[in-house]
Amino acid sequence: MTAAGKKTLHVSLVAIPDAMLSTLVSIYDVLNGITLFGSFDETVPDENPFRVEIVAPTQAPIETASGLPVAGQRTIVEIERTDIVIIPSMMVAGGEWVLGRYPELVNWLSAMHNLGALVCSACSGALLLAETGLLDGCEATVHWAYAPTFRRNFPDVRLCAEKALVIAGERQQFVMSGASASWHDLVLYLVARHVGPAAAQAIAKFMLLQWHGDGQAPYAVFVPPMNHVDGVVLDVQHWIVRHFTEAAPVAGMVKRSGLAERSFKRRFKRATGHDPIIYVQHLRVEKAKQLLERTDSPIEEISWNVGYEDPAFFRRLFKRLTGITPGAYRRTFRLPDFVGI
């Protein structure tokens, strides 16, 4: 038992060949080393409330996606029960999740959930969690770059890729964090939930961990979907990359396609998943983000350069698509002066 009289929680960190070792080890270090922070803040307990171990499908060392091997401390067949399961971020080849690669692990995750475990994922680990079917009908999040493959494979899950942390389920038994460093949010949430908010705050200060309160939207990069077979739409997509600042870009797209306006818009939406005007807005905002990061140009000038004469409209659109204002975006992502570039 911990000093607070609570039972020690067994945490199973899952190691598989797709796992990113950096996330797995970072989560292990923070949760396994909580008592090390106690001498700096009295809110951190003297006894660790978590007993953390790395578990794997096999006994043999696993070469992770990072290229470095890791050995599980126990195999999943040896774990009859656990309190918390954490699937770390994974590197998915080609950005496309392939179902059925880890059937024993999927069954084990379901079994641990049925026995009452809290099941968590960091980043792309949500893809493996979703394969259990446990998330059907629930909200979820995943690294923004894997949102397309997530939606294709798991249409019954309500994906909220703009969120950095999602807690779902009737007993809040699913906890998912978004892209890469949002494992900070996952670990801090687990500490806050099982130890206390003050302890989570103390650990965040000591480790320079942070809550990503603005979500993932500011970090997401718009990648034009071109993995379709509509040649007319593909031609227009290549054309609009060079002409998105024009005064009437959608009219130009329609003209380029040679189709009737209604037919073009229907085909474009079917092929890309976006209405033409939304697609153009994403292209313009993506260019604006680059200018905010790399230049000192005033926001009014950037607005004009990407095709908007009204800076107020541009600011509203930018915040709607990214979650933050252009000024906040520049402060967040601009390289610091000492970089010297």
Question: How is the topology of this model organized?
Answer:
Layout: E1 9-14, H1 21-32, E2 50-56, E3 62-63, E4 69-70, E5 74-75, E6 84-87, H2 103-114, E7 118-122, H3 126-130, E8 139-140, H4 147-153, E9 158-159, E10 165-168, E11 174-177, H5 183-194, H6 197-207, H7 231-243, H8 249-257, H9 261-272, H10 276-294, H11 299-305, H12 311-322, H13 326-333
Parallel strand pairs: 1-2, 1-6, 2-5, 6-7, 7-11, 8-9
Antiparallel strand pairs: 3-4, 10-11
Helix pairs in contact: 1-5, 5-6, 7-8
Strand % is 5-15%
Distance between the termini: 53 Å
What level of helicity do the residues show?
A: 40-55%
Spatial arrangement of strands, main beta sheet: 5-2-1-6-7-11-10
The tally of domains stands at: 2
Low-confidence stretches: none
CATH class placement of the largest domain:
Alpha Beta
Rg over CA atoms: 23 Å
Identify the overall geometry.
globular
Q: The CATH topology of the largest domain is what?
A: Rossmann fold
CATH architecture name of the largest domain: 3-Layer(aba) Sandwich
- Category from helices, strands and their pairing: alpha/beta
Largest sheet: 7 strands, mixed
Q: Summarize the helix and strand pattern as letters.
A: EHEEEEEHEHEHEEEHHHHHHHHH
